[in-house]
Design goal:
single chain, 127 residues, alpha+beta, 32% strand, globular
Length: 127
Amino acid sequence: MDENTIGTLLIEAAIEVHRELGPALLESVYEAALAYELEQRGLKVARQIPVPLNYKGIHFDEGFRADLIIEDKVIAELKSVEKVTPAHKKQTQTYLRLTGKKLGYLLNFGGEVMKTGITRCVNGLPE
C-alpha cells in the first residue's frame, strides 16, 4: 500500500473519530481511538514510537516520540489545540526528515470541524 492510500484512510479515520468524540479532549484519547479506527481498516499502527537519532556522532536512543506510524510509512502527529501554529508543522516536517519517511499528517482535533485541522506534510514524495 502506498503512502497516499494510507493517507486517505488516515484522514477518513480521523474524521470518524472527531465526529464521534467531538473536539478538545486529550491528545492521548484521540491517539487511542485513531489507532483503533486504523486497525479496523486493516492497517498496522505503532503508537508512541521512540525514534533514535544521531547528532555529530552522538547516538540518542530516543530523539523524539512519534505519535503514530502507520504501515511504517506515514507519520501522524496529533494535537488538540485551539490553533495550529507554524511550529507544529515544522515539527512534523522535522520528524519526516529525521525518519526518512515521505508523508506525514498534522492532525488537530481541537477545532469544531476536523477538515480544518488536517495538514499534509511531504518529504520528497512524488505527486
